[in-house]
């Protein structure tokens, strides 16, 4: 399969490596690669040079919309994957003529899939979810203060960077009905984006959810605790453990590429698990509702 990766940052390189290992014929769009026969300077040049079966948009978040429009205006009729979040801001646009997915690969984590089975016959009452990692430790060898994460104008900030949480919570427990939030910069990190966000919301099924996201935690943590009428289920995505009513089940450690590999496999096999175009737009709507709630200090309804 002929594949095109737009962007040569850390996530773009990961997609390139994985798709090469899967046996695909991989081309790149990047202004930073010289003398590479499989690299194009622009998306326009790539699309007019040959036909691709699969395109991955993996450039900076604020560039997603323009790149998407250029692909949408071309003769491309394959499969498109857009790195999360879909766009920096919500755009009321029609579904493209080609199949499009959003790269919320955490859906493919074995423990999230196991959670789906565990709650299938349970009445879920509430969830407390948390993710935190110290931003300067994210990308070793780089200056965090110059990364896109440090600038809201480039699509940075914890709400967009860590929007995996918004997606997997929606995937497991349904869409939000009303929410309230506090977001902002509360630390001395040298950034111009929010480093902390706390959200409380109700789902359409009246499940109560609280969520904290931050760039501050020097102990990398990612977990969620589910309360049902019969069980307390704590899922630790870092240590690969599920604790059910005090009984801890240890799962095998997974490779960092695992969820990305599974995401590509499911997308290319027309699975129902990957995040759809419409679901990706709903996450951006939720992000903007969180920002409005924090700014206006009030509950926001999903209307």
Automatic annotation (TrEMBL):
Tell me the ranges covered by the Gfo/Idh/MocA-like oxidoreductase N-terminal domain, including all copies: 2-90
Gene Ontology molecular function, alphabetical: nucleotide binding
Spell out the SUPFAM superfamilies in the cross-references. Glyceraldehyde-3-phosphate dehydrogenase-like, C-terminal domain (SSF55347), NAD(P)-binding Rossmann-fold domains (SSF51735)
Where does the GFO/IDH/MocA-like oxidoreductase domain lie?
A: 124-219
Write down the superkingdom of origin: Bacteria
- The name this protein carries in UniProt is Gfo/Idh/MocA family oxidoreductase
């Amino acid at each position: 399969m002929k594949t095109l990766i737009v962007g040569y940052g850390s996530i773009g390189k990961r997609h390139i490596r994985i798709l090469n290992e899967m046996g695909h014929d991989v081309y790149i769009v990047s202004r930073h690669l010289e003398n590479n026969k499989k690299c194009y300077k622009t998306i326009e040049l790539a699309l007019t040079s040959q036909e691709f079966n699969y395109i991955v948009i993996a450039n900076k978040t604020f560039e997603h919309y323009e790149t998407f429009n250029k692909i949408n205006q071309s003769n491309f009729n394959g499969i498109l994957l857009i790195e999360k979040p879909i766009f920096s801001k919500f755009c009321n646009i029609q579904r493209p003529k080609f199949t499009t997915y959003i790269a919320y690969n955490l859906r493919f984590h074995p423990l999230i899939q196991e959670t789906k089975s565990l709650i299938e016959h349970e009445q879920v009452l509430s969830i407390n979810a948390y993710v935190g990692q110290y931003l300067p430790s994210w990308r070793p060898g780089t200056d965090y203060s110059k990364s896109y994460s440090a600038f809201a104008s480039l699509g940075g900030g914890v709400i967009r960077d860590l929007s995996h949480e918004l997606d997997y919570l929606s995937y497991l427990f349904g869409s939000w009905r009303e929410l309230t939030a506090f977001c902002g910069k509360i630390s001395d990190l040298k950034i111009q984006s929010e480093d902390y966000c706390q959200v409380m919301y109700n789902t359409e099924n009246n499940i109560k959810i609280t969520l904290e996201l931050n760039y501050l935690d020097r102990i990398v943590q990612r977990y969620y605790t589910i309360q049902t009428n019969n069980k307390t289920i704590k899922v630790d995505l870092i240590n690969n453990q599920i604790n059910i009513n005090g009984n801890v089940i240890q799962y095998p450690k997974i490779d960092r590429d695992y969820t990305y590999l599974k995401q590509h496999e499911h997308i290319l096999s027309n699975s129902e698990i990957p995040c759809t175009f419409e679901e990706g737009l709903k996450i951006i709507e939720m992000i903007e509702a969180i920002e409005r709630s924090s700014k206006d200090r009030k509950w926001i309804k999903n209307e």
